[in-house]
C-alpha cells in the first residue's frame, strides 16, 4: 500500500514488490527528504498513473529540470505536502518506463539489496559497489 502522511492519498501499487529500491545520495534527494539521502521504490509507470479518480483531487504536481535534460514530475499530497511519486519525462516529453515511489510512503518496504546511487555527494558511509552517479540503466 502507498500512503501519504495524512492518508488523503492511499492506493495499491501495481506490483506486490518494487522492481528495485534505490537509496539516493544526490543533493536533490537530500533537500527533498531533509535527510542524508532519499529512498525510492521503482515501479513501472503503466498501471500506476494516472492516479485513481478518488484521490486525484488530493494530488498536486511540481516539475523541475534534471541535470540530464529531462523533466521530473513530482506528485505530492495537497493536504500534508508529502511527495509520493516522481516520474521522469524525456526531453521529447515522453514518459520514462518507470517511476519512483517515495520510500516512506510504502508499507513494509525492505531495504535489503537496495542500491546506493549518486554516492559522490553522500554524507554518510556507503557500501562498496555503490554507484557514484546514476545506475547504468538510467
Automatic annotation (TrEMBL):
Residues 1-119 form the CENP-V/GFA domain. Transmembrane segments: none annotated. GO terms for molecular function: carbon-sulfur lyase activity; metal ion binding. It comes from the Eukaryota. Pfam families: GFA. Keywords: Lyase, Metal-binding, Zinc. Belongs to the Gfa family. This is CENP-V/GFA domain-containing protein. It comes from Trichoderma harzianum CBS 226.95.
Amino acid at each position: 500500500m502507498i500512503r501519504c502522511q495524512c492518508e488523503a492519498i492511499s492506493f495499491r501499487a501495481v506490483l506486490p514488490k518494487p522492481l528495485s529500491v534505490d537509496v539516493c545520495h544526490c543533493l536533490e534527494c537530500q533537500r527533498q527528504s531533509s535527510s542524508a539521502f532519499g529512498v525510492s521504490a521503482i515501479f513501472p509507470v503503466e498501471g500506476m498513473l494516472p492516479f485513481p479518480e478518488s484521490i486525484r483531487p488530493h494530488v498536486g504536481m511540481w516539475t523541475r529540470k534534471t541535470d540530464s535534460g529531462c523533466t521530473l514530475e513530482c506528485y505530492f499530497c495537497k493536504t500534508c505536502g508529502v511527495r509520493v511519486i516522481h516520474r521522469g519525462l524525456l526531453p521529447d516529453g515522453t514518459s520514462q518506463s518507470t517511476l519512483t515511489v517515495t520510500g516512506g510512503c510504502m508499507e513494509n518496504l525492505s531495504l535489503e539489496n537496495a542500491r546506493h546511487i549518486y554516492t559522490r555527494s553522500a554524507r554518510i558511509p556507503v557500501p562498496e559497489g555503490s554507484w557514484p552517479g546514476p545506475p547504468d540503466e538510467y
